[in-house]
Amino acid sequence: GRSIGCSCDCCNVAQRRPDERQGVVGVKCAPAEGHSREVCAEQCQTTPRDEVLGLVARDEVVDYARFCFYECKPPSGLTSAMNSQCLALASDETKQVTDADGNSLDPAFLYEHQSVVALAEEGDETPDEDVETEESKESSQKLLANTTESEDAENGEDSEELPDPESDPLVAASGARDAAWHAEGSAAKAARAARKALEALETGRNQTWLNAMTEADKALNFMKQNDIRLATAHVKGPKPWRIQAAEAARAAAQPYLEAHNHLAETLPNLDRQASMQASKAAKDLEAKAHELKTKAAVLRRRGKDTSAELTEQFASQTAQQAVEKEQAAKDWLAAAHSNEQKSRDERFLENAQVAAQQAAQQLKLPQRYQLALP
Question: Cα separation of 350 and 344, whole Å?
């Protein structure tokens, strides 16, 4: 059956062996005792999103001892109490405990930082930096006790004498196990890289073959088209009668159609544009004349009669120009209507149709059409 999912709930703070110590770091996370095997077994299953051991785990299953060591941390860093429950690494911490090749790193350096942060947070809550509170004393004593306990354990003072790492077979077996874990992870990564390389090679071969066949088809089609063009280039037979009749009808009707477009569309459009421009100019001149009249009235109230008279004359001239522009706009609009009417009176479209029919009828029909006539 499937293994139980890995969780730091099954990991407690434990004492590091001498060969596992990193400086002053003497604690680690290890499988907790007292839990049932149904809850905390010897192995567990990682999640697909596991960035620490998920990439190198075989079938996503790892030993719980390995999971606790690499993916969990003591709750208070170096000051954590023995057998206290461990916590899962934060998302930013998981990125720090793997090297460039994806191998897991000893998270001991995180414990030191975690202890410094915890002490700093306790210091921030202290009103006076010079006054040592009971909590800071207790934290310092706890850190000192754990460090002393680790050193005593290593030196054999006040504790059970630990075996020599170089001669203890258990220590050697642990080192061999760690080396096997790293070797297993590297082998799994190498296998995945090899599979991807083979897949890329196969895909590249298939794509190269398809590209070659496509280019060959294009070249063959081009050669066929070129051969047909060269074979038929010197053969210039007579145009079909229908094409000749259509060309003759189009040429005969072209002058009438051009005259119709000139009178019915081109000239009316130009006349309407000129009318709109003249109407806009007339409105601008009317506004200017009104402004000048207002200015002249102000000058008269101020007793400047000479300036007022000149301004009134200019206003009168401007108003006259506005009237002339408005009349021009009407004349342009009338010209547009006149050209449209002229195009209808000249019957250009009807004449174009008659000319096209006559031109087509003047062509000599093929023999098979002449035999069909009564």
Answer: 10
What gap in Å lies between CA 38 and CA 5, rounded to an integer? Answer: 11
Q: Does the pLDDT of residue 134 top 70, yes or no?
A: no
Cβ-Cβ contacts under 8 Å for 24 (sequence gap 6 or more) = 78, 112, 147, 150
Asked whether the beta carbons of 76 and 143 are under 8 A apart, the reply is no
Taking the CA of residue 72 as centre, how many other CA atoms within 13 Å lie in the half-sphere pointing to its CB?
A: 28
Mean pLDDT over each residue of the chain, to the nearest integer: 78
Question: Distance between CA atoms of 228 and 224, rounded to whole angstroms?
Answer: 6
pTM: 0.36
In the block, residue with structure tokens 């007579």: 238
Beta strands (DSSP E) in the chain are 11-15, 27-31, 43-45, 61-63, 72-73, 87-88
- 41 or 194, which is more confident? 41
pLDDT at 363 over 50: yes
CA distances from 156 to 28, 125, 150, 208, 229 (A): 20, 38, 10, 70, 100
Cα distance between residue 125 and residue 334, in whole Å: 93
- DSSP letter string, 71-85: HEE-TTGGGPPTTPB
**Amino acid of residue 80:** S
Task: Check: CB of residue 265 under 8 Å from CB of residue 349.
Answer: no
Q: Which residues lie below 8 Å from residue 264, measured CB to CB, with a gap of 6+?
A: 339, 340, 343, 344, 348
Angstrom distance (rounded) from CA 260 to CA 335: 16
SS3 call for 234: coil
